[in-house]
């Protein structure tokens, strides 16, 4: 097992290197110049602009720039934002808590909704409950998040006026009232994400549970006279959840990237909206850092999913 | 299938059992595709989805000719009109007829979906087929490559590449064609991986079958074996993946446009209409409602079509 983990980690490193190279090359090859704003500024003569380029290292060949960037990243330094002139890491640190809070709550809620509904749906296959649940799930993951978000805004902000539709991180109302305001503004973004994620997850839970229910050992458990509840909870559910746990782990990076859209709808000041503004501003260091962080998330959670699967399912052999 | 029936007809005639002969000739032989169709028809929601989607396709092709109003004519006097008989979906800030824009934009949205799917299926099938057929070094290289693409953070990359390359593309090919090519290429280029894995798995098992050995024996060439003998047998899961791919490509394009990184304002794709409408959500919610609804309905119907096809032609899913 340990050897397996070590080997998987060793494979993950070249993957990350390759991804960062791909993104770096795309950014470097792209037309458009981060200094284009200076080009329009008559106060900056061309020689000065040339000097700035040289100081920023923009004239070096791509591999040299990549090597420089990489050496810094190893030390945990993502450079400075072209736009706000502050360290990229500080910008990300400032935005990350909001994103983590919204996404984390949404993902936990979606898991808590998806598992019981999926299990019940599978146990009572073709029942009215199952039909309703699968139909809602089907609709749920066919609904693009940007449309659900706008719909919620129309209903709860515009028509009913219950919830604010712009997320503010600057709420400073003291006491319980402030907490309530924080919760109120998070309700819609969390709902949008949770609805989409739980719909997809519920289908997995149901499929996995259906597969386990028909296994021989479940029939054996029934045959030896165990009560239905014990058969489902102790024999079927525990095994059905093995692939589900993997899916949950694999889904984390996707929730992060999916949050880019949700953050944009509700103007949540998280890293998703930071990415969008950075792309618009040609702020290469910020874009590179966030994309790289997303890539790291994908690789790490793939790794976690593999390891969890190995721990939960002792039938898997590592050779 | 028909050969079998014929030989049985002869056998029956030779045996003199004329009654059996009558019964056999009365039944039309069933082909693989008619079997699939019989199965497909039973999935009522899939059938409904087919009608809805075909309706959308026909409406967007024929609609702009039948619906007399222009999608681009500016009529500021009649701006921001709520839905009425004159304008069934209202008018936007510049007095454009939203219904005409939805019909027109649907052409772009649906063709982006279809063409992007074709790109991703072609890439995926080629890579999967080559990897699965040749095996060994080629296989492991291509699969490493596929794994790398699977770990790329898709949404950030999509946003990044469209933003970076859209000016150059629109300069070279014009605003509509240039953007279309770019969007289709990136969506296709970042979504072929699951198809490649599917096709590879099919090829790995099919190439060991006796009929492929027979094809080798009659001297069929490599290309002929790959495309004439193996590929048609590996097609079922690919068709299902292709159908679902259209839906997700439509969502991806809408997401890009919704974030303001897709088509230009004079190309009213469904996502772009939503992007333009979100700022007026308080005064004109219908501007959000209609484009969102058509995106949702087309994706939902495509997903149901895919579901029905899976039941009908994917042998692993036959109950």
Spell out the blueprint of helices and strands.
The complex is a heterodimer of chains A (319) and B (319).
Chain A: H1 2-29, H2 36-39, H3 46-56, H4 62-74, H5 88-123, H6 128-142, H7 145-159, H8 175-213, H9 216-223, H10 228-266, H11 271-280, H12 284-312
Helix pairs in contact in A: 1-12, 5-6, 5-8, 5-10, 5-12, 6-8, 7-8, 7-10, 8-10, 9-10, 10-11, 10-12, 11-12
Chain B: H1 2-15, H2 18-26, H3 32-42, H4 44-66, H5 98-134, H6 136-151, H7 154-173, H8 175-189, H9 193-206, H10 210-217, H11 222-230, H12 235-258, H13 270-277, H14 286-313
Helix pairs in contact in B: 1-2, 3-14, 4-5, 4-14, 5-6, 5-8, 5-9, 5-12, 6-9, 7-8, 12-13, 12-14, 13-14
Question: What does it look like?
Answer:
The complex is a heterodimer of chains A (319) and B (319). Chain A is 77% helix and 0% strand. Chain A contains twelve helices and no strands. Chain A starts with a helix and ends in a 7-residue tail after the last helix. The mean pLDDT of chain A is 82. Chain B has 319 residues and is mostly helical. Chain B has a single domain (33-313), classed as MetI-like (MetI-like fold, Orthogonal Bundle), CATH 1.10.3720.10. The longest helix of chain B has 37 residues, at 98-134. Chain B starts with a helix and ends in a 6-residue tail after the last helix. At the A-B interface, α1, α6, α7, α10 and α11 of A face α6, α7, α12 and α14 of B.
CATH-defined architecture of chain B: Orthogonal Bundle
Overall 3D shape of chain B: globular
Structure class of chain A? mainly alpha
Multimer state: heterodimer
Helical amount of chain B: over 70%
Rg on CA atoms of chain B, Å: 25 Å
Helical element count of chain B?
14
**Silhouette of chain A:** globular
Structural class from helices and strands of chain B? mainly alpha
Strand content of chain B: under 5%
Count of individual beta strands of chain B? 0
Topology pattern of chain B, helix = H, strand = E: HHHHHHHHHHHHHH
**Mind summarizing the main beta sheet of chain A?**
none
Unreliable stretches covering 5 or more consecutive residues of chain A: none
Taken in chain order, the helices and strands of chain A follow as HHHHHHHHHHHH
Helix content of chain A: over 70%
């Amino acid at each position: 097992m340990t050897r397996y983990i070590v080997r998987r980690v060793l494979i993950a490193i070249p993957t990350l290197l390759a991804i960062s190279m791909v993104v770096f090359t795309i950014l470097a090859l792209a037309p458009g110049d981060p200094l284009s704003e200076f080009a329009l500024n008559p106060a900056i003569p061309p020689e000065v602009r040339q000097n700035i380029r040289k100081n920023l290292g923009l004239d070096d060949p791509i591999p040299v720039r990549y090597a420089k960037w990489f050496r810094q990243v190893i030390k945990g330094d993502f450079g400075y934002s072209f736009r706000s002139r502050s360290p990229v890491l500080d910008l990300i640190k400032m935005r990350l808590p909001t994103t983590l809070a919204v996404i984390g709550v949404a993902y936990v809620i979606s898991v808590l909704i998806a598992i019981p509904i999926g299990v019940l749906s599978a146990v009572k296959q073709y029942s009215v409950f199952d039909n309703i649940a699968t139909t809602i799930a089907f609709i749920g993951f066919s609904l693009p998040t940007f449309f659900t978000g706008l719909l919620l805004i129309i209903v709860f902000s515009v028509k009913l006026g219950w919830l604010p539709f712009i997320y503010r991180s600057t709420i400073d109302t003291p006491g319980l009232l402030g907490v309530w305001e924080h919760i109120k503004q998070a309700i819609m973004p969390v709902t949008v994400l949770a609805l989409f994620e739980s719909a997809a997850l519920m289908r997995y839970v149901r499929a996995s549970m259906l597969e386990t229910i028909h296994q021989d050992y479940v029939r054996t458990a029934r045959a030896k006279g165990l009560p239905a509840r014990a058969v489902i909870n102790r024999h079927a559910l525990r095994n059905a959840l093995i692939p589900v746990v993997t899916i949950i782990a694999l889904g984390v990076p996707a929730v992060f990237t999916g949050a880019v859209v949700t953050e944009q709808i509700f103007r949540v000041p998280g890293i998703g909206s930071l990415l969008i503004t950075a792309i618009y501003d040609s702020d290469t260091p910020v874009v590179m850092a966030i994309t790289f962080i997303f890539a790291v998330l994908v690789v790490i959670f793939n790794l976690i999913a593999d390891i969890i699967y190995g721990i939960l399912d002792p039938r898997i052999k590592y050779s | 299938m028909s050969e079998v029936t014929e030989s049985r007809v002869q056998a029956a005639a030779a045996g003199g059992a004329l009654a059996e002969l009558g019964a056999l000739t009365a039944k039309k032989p069933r082909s693989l595709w008619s079997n699939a169709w019989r199965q497909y028809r039973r999935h009522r929601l899939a059938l409904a989805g087919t009608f809805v989607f075909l309706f959308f396709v026909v409406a967007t092709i024929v609609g702009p000719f039948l619906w007399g109003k222009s999608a681009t004519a500016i009529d500021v006097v009649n701006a921001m009109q709520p839905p009425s008989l004159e304008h069934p979906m209202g008018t936007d800030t510049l007095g454009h007829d939203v219904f005409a824009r939805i019909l027109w934009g649907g052409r772009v949205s649906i063709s982006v979906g279809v063409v992007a799917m074709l790109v991703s299926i072609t890439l995926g099938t080629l890579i999967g087929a080559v990897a699965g057929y040749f095996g060994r070094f080629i296989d492991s290289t291509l699969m490493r490559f596929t794994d790398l693409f699977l770990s790329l953070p898709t949404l950030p990359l999509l946003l990044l590449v469209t933003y970076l390359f859209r000016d150059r593309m629109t300069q070279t090919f014009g605003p509509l064609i240039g953007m279309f090519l770019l969007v289709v290429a990136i969506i296709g280029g970042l979504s072929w991986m699951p198809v490649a894995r599917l096709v590879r798995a099919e090829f790995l098992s099919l190439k060991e079958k006796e009929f492929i050995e027979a094809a080798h024996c009659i001297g069929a060439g490599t290309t002929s074996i790959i495309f004439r003998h193996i590929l048609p047998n590996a097609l079922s899961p690919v068709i299902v993946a292709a159908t679902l791919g259209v839906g997700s490509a439509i969502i991806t394009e809408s997401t890009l446009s919704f974030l303001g990184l897709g088509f230009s304002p004079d190309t009213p794709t469904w996502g772009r209409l939503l992007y333009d409408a979100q700022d007026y959500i308080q005064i004109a919610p219908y501007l959000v409602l209609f484009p969102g609804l058509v995106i949702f309905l087309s994706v939902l119907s495509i997903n149901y079509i895919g579901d029905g096809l899976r039941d009908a032609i994917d042998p692993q899913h036959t109950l």
